[in-house]
Request: fold
Amino acid sequence: MQKLEDFDLVEKAFYLSTDVVDIARSLLGMYLYTSILGAPPCLAKIVETEAYRAPDDKGSHAYQNKKTKRTEVMFRTGGISYIYLCYGIHEMFNVVTGPKDCAHAILIRAVEPVTGIEEIKKRRKKENLSDCCNGPGKLCAALGIDRSFNASTLYDPASNIRIYRKNTPIINDIISSPRVGIAYAGESANLPWRFRIESSPFTSKPDEVNYG
DNA sequence: GCGACGATTCGCT
DNA sequence: GCGAATCGTCGCG
Reply:
């Protein structure tokens, strides 16, 4: 069992870069921590991310800086969560990055459970651990993340959702490829902004996408 | 108001 | 591989 003392809370400055693609890559190997009332805390290593870069990215909810009730949190200063409901069923967890009015976000697509394993299996009703967090909707269910945690501050030790890094840096084998499920995004669809730790058995489906 | 649809998942064929 | 589930959001009238 790993102890949280072996990790450092990722500082606010990390989220403020305007290079969302670079941050998406850097998040690989960092750790998502959730402490939900009434449940054991969970820690999980981030193994897959996708960058969404408004205003020019047609895949982004904030394409052309379209600001609505839902996307408003994307325009806030980086370092907070953007959580929305997809297909009326699944919650999606994003990390908002960049300075105020820079509507960049990073979708967390897969994580590898580290602690809170039993709670994760219980929430997912799955015994096979590698099928608990290998998708953006799955990991939210597994870690107890829902829209009530939208706009949570990820660098605040008092938040229910936080991001940590290990004290000792690690080298990851990273591959990039087109993002999943954005066929509607035209020429933005093939941008290689999906990042995975190639050797991880905990990344999501599909292995490849093809938008023609 | 109303209708179309989505940064997905699961179960069945 | 395919279709259903399921509802908030958004654009249009």
